[in-house]
Amino acid sequence: MKKSDDSRFQQDASGQWWWVPANPHHRRTRAIVGRCGSCSEEFLTRGSEVRQFCSPECHYASIRRTKPPCIECGQPIQSKYAERYCSHSCAAAARHHRAPRTTTTSDSPATLVNSDSPNYVQDEAGQWWHLVGARRARTRARIAECQRCGGRFLTSIYHASPYCSKSCGLLASNAANPGRFGGSRGGNWRGGRRVLPNGYVEIWDPEAAQRHRPGTKKPYVLEHRLVMEEKLGRALLPGENVHHINGIRDDNRPENLELWVKKQPPGQRAHEQKHCPTCTCT
């Protein structure tokens, strides 16, 4: 009987087995005799435990017996976690054996976009391989066609990207989602209003920008021109420009703007200038 030599299992005069804990303040527990479901030997266990096996080794042996052998090499599976293969090497070999030959000698390297990459090598049979990691472990490569540019490129059989490069992937994503980074969705969005180094203010308004400069890709337009157009109720004509009365270029209040029909001189009128808030020299 297994575990009969365990000091925690003790038998009294009547033949009853007890499990006596090491702590003398704890009460003993009645022990029972069970039969192992793997080796069929009897073993002692606590009455409160429901056990089918006498040891972890018998438990793992029972699990291994219920599993089918490795489908690649036919050897019994020793791991309690594996289900189909006995090792990683058998799993990789089965993956490669199931995969058909992906490249042949008829595939010219000159027609492949990334054939000059050091991560791809070709053996004497014409099969391309993808080298991975510092140990340069090889994985079978296949030839795919880029969904954007149509170029043929090499990729691993585990790689499912339909594009030959990151640039093609980004361009295709931008084409499928136009304007996803424009306007308020952009990372540099500051409310659609920005001050130029020369002091003028621009507003983000693509429609007005196209009206002022047809065909432009710049979505910003000068704010004082928009304010003057709203004040007049029409678009500015060629040759018309806007003058700031107080000389402050970011002060685009309607009462501070004047419409000029010829090129305005620099500076301000003499009576418009103020040297200081309490100036009386004018």
Helix amount? 10-25%
Low-confidence stretches: none
Structural class: alpha+beta
Straight-line distance between termini? 119 Å
How many whole angstroms does the radius of gyration measure?
Answer: 42 Å
Spatial order of the strands forming the largest sheet: 1-2-3-4
Count of separate DSSP helical elements: 5
Report strand %.
15-25%
Descriptive tags:
about 280 residues, four-stranded antiparallel β-sheet, elongated, 4 domains
Q: Can you characterise this structure?
A:
- By secondary structure, the protein is α+β, with helices and mostly antiparallel strands.
- The protein folds into four domains: 9-61, no CATH class; 67-97, no CATH class; 99-168, no CATH class; 193-265, no CATH class.
- 18% of the residues lie in helices and 21% in strands.
- It has a four-stranded antiparallel sheet with strand order 1-2-3-4, with no helix packed on it. Strands 5-6-7-8 form a four-stranded antiparallel sheet, with no helix packed on it.
- A hairpin with a 5-residue loop joins strand 1 and strand 2 (17-19).
- It is elongated, with a radius of gyration of 42 Å.
- The chain starts with 8 loop residues before the first strand and ends in a 22-residue tail after the last strand.
